[in-house]
């Protein structure tokens, strides 16, 4: 190897090393004040994220900076990657993303981080290495416990009930069902409640309606159904209402409160839900803390989120909005989605 070539290689290596150090230093820069936060939800037309954005805008009005929202018309990782790159080119301080695919968007997010953009996730997480914190709406076990407790209250902790899940392979819902079974087996107050069947609505409004009516027919003494799927609970409520069974058979589960408001108001349905606006509000506060290096994602860190109070970072950089609420006639007006 000639000395000239050797010098060239050494020079190239030095330049790469300098560029690498500069890139890392750039990525670790801390904002000295409020920045623009680019919210990137799964889908532009989803009203869930439109409501969350109103919370982010409320928070921006309190502490400064700006909350913008850009999102694809198709709920795919490929579409989100294009928007990640667009937000980087706009020089936002933070990207807050609800991922369509946790791993597929990670490389683009890591590139954004190398260019000095901080990353947080909300609603739907990304690979942990591609963000600082994840703002999660509710803990899975708490949702399962609240659904079981809601069913218990509706049927006075006595009698037959069923579960109408989405699909047999839905990981989160299977975990909730297992949790409910274990809770019933270990706590005396559930001793008189009997789970007679787990059925599946297959993420279809029509199938959910058929399955709900099928459960009512198969079990004449059925008192209630837990439906832990957003599409399933409104569909089942409509079917039971048309069949004259709503009220005789109580329903509870997860769904946007506004979709089943009239059933909640008449006492035949309860809902487990959270304040979607508050999720956007919390995410904005966390994003600004991350931008200013006041929040690094380390377990045990705390930060303030305006009217919501103090929050602590949990395992894996997760921050929980808080326990969900059981939506009843008394509080249904508080839920705008």
Biggest sheet, in brief? 6 strands, parallel
Gyration radius, in Å: 24 Å
Structural class: alpha/beta
Order of helices and strands: HEHEHEHEEHEHEHEHEHEHEEEE
- Describe the strand arrangement of the main beta sheet, using strand numbers: 2-1-3-4-5-13
Q: List low-confidence stretches.
A: 5-27
Whole-Å distance between the termini?
70 Å
Mean pLDDT: 90
Helix content: 40-55%
Q: Proportion of β residues?
A: 15-25%
User: How would you name the oligomeric state of the polypeptide chains in this document?
Assistant: single chain
Number of strands: 14
Number of helices: 10
Based on Cα principal axes, name the global outline.
elongated
Summarize the structure.
The chain has 337 residues and is an alpha/beta fold. 42% of the residues lie in helices and 18% in strands.
Can you put this structure into words, describing what you see?
With 337 residues, the chain is α/β, with parallel strands linked by helices. The protein contains ten helices and 14 strands. The strands form four sheets. It has a six-stranded parallel beta sheet with strand order 2-1-3-4-5-13, with helices on both faces. The chain has a four-stranded parallel beta sheet with strand order 7-6-8-9, sandwiched between helices. The longest helix is centred in the N-terminal third of the chain and has 25 residues, at 3-27. It is elongated, with a radius of gyration of 24 Å. The relative contact order is 0.13. Mean pLDDT is 90; it is low at 5-27.
């Amino acid at each position: 190897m000639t000395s000239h070539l050797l010098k060239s290689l050494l020079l190239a290596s030095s330049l790469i090393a300098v560029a690498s150090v500069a890139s890392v230093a750039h990525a670790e820069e801390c904002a000295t004040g409020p920045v623009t936060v680019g919210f990137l939800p799964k889908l532009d037309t989803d009203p869930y994220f439109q409501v969350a954005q109103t919370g982010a805008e409320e928070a921006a009005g309190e502490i400064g900076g700006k909350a913008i929202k850009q999102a694809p018309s198709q709920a795919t990782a490929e579409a989100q990657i294009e928007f990640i790159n667009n937000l980087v080119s706009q020089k936002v301080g933070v990207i807050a993303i609800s991922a369509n695919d946790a791993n597929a968007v990670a490389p683009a997010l890591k590139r954004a981080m190398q260019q000095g953009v901080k990353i947080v996730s909300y609603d739907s997480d990304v690979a942990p290495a591609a963000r600082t914190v994840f703002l999660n709406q509710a803990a899975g076990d708490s949702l399962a416990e609240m659904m079981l407790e809601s069913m218990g209250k509706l049927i006075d902790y006595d009698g037959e009930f069923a579960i109408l899940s989405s699909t047999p392979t839905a990981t989160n819902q299977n975990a909730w069902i297992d949790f409910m079974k274990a809770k019933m087996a270990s706590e005396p107050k559930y001793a008189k409640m009997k789970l007679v069947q787990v059925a599946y609505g297959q993420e279809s409004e029509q199938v959910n309606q058929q399955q709900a009516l099928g459960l009512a027919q198969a079990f004449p003494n059925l008192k209630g159904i837990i439906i832990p799927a957003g599409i399933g609970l409104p569909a089942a409520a409509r079917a039971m209402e048309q069949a004259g069974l709503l009220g005789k058979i109580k329903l509870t589960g997860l769904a946007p409160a506004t979709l089943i408001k009239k059933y909640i108001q008449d006492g035949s349905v309860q809902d487990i839900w959270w304040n979607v606006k508050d999720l956007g509000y919390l995410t904005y506060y966390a994003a600004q803390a991350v931008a200013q290096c006041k929040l690094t994602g380390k377990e045990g860190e705390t930060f303030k989120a305006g009217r919501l109070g103090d929050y602590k970072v949990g395992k894996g950089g997760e921050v929980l909005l808080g326990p969900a609420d059981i939506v009843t006639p008394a509080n249904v007006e508080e839920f705008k989605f």
